[in-house]
Amino acid sequence: MAHVNPWLRRLYQRRQLPPDLLRSTDPFVPLRPREATVALLYSFTLGPPGAGDVVSRELTTVVDGGAAQKTTLPGSATTYSATFEHGQNVSMNLVDIDGAGNRSPPSPTLSFTAADTFPPPAPAIPVISNVEQV
């Protein structure tokens, strides 16, 4: 009983725990908390089209070096939103397409790593739930 948590020992002595829970905790291996997958909503501002006859815009997104995903936007689109997970490496570029089907050269590539930099809210104040004389 030398390596037993003092709280467990105290509860056992008060006969509130079954004896089999008082086994030695040596070697103690702490549990790793599971990492929650955090979705991050990114909003992007797209520069205006360079010509008046642009009918659509093609936004290409590559996540973690995977397959390129192409999203067709209206020619007047100047905003876009997408969701990524913490730690994903993202690359994006934009191509404008005119009414004749001509494609502009791609914009410079925007590359970033999605990062969760938001701290959790402050926890509630601790509350006394019970007081006993021992």
Key phrases:
6 strands; two-stranded antiparallel sheet; four-stranded antiparallel sheet; 1 helix; 2 domains; 134 residues; Immunoglobulin-like; mainly beta
Describe the secondary-structure layout:
Blueprint: H1 6-13, E1 39-45, E2 54-63, E3 69-74, E4 79-85, E5 89-98, E6 110-113
Description:
The protein has 134 residues and is mostly beta strands. It folds into two domains: 1-30, no CATH class; 39-113, Immunoglobulins (Immunoglobulin-like). It contains one helix and six strands; from the N terminus they run αββββββ. The protein has one helix at 6-13; strands at 39-45, 54-63, 69-74, 79-85, 89-98, 110-113. It has a four-stranded antiparallel sheet, with no helix packed on it. The longest helix has 8 residues, at 6-13. The radius of gyration is 28 Å and the shape is elongated. The model has no long low-confidence stretch (mean pLDDT 84).
In short:
This protein is mainly beta and 134 residues long. It is built from one helix and six strands, in the order αββββββ. The two termini are 21 Å apart.
- CATH fold-level name of the largest domain: Immunoglobulin-like
Shape: elongated
Average pLDDT rating = 84
Level-1 CATH class name of the largest domain:
Mainly Beta
CATH architecture of the largest domain: Sandwich
Strand fraction: 25-35%
Question: What structural class is derived from the secondary structure elements?
Answer: mainly beta
Task: List SSEs in N-to-C order.
Answer: HEEEEEE
Q: Radius of gyration from the CA trace?
A: 28 Å
CATH superfamily of the largest domain: Immunoglobulins
Portion in helices: under 10%
Span from first to last CA? Answer: 21 Å
Question: What's the domain count?
Answer: 2
Strand arrangement across the biggest beta sheet: 3-2-5-6
Treating each run of at least 4 consecutive H or I residues as one helix, how many helices?
Answer: 1
Number of strands: 6
Low-confidence stretches: none
The largest sheet is: 4 strands, antiparallel
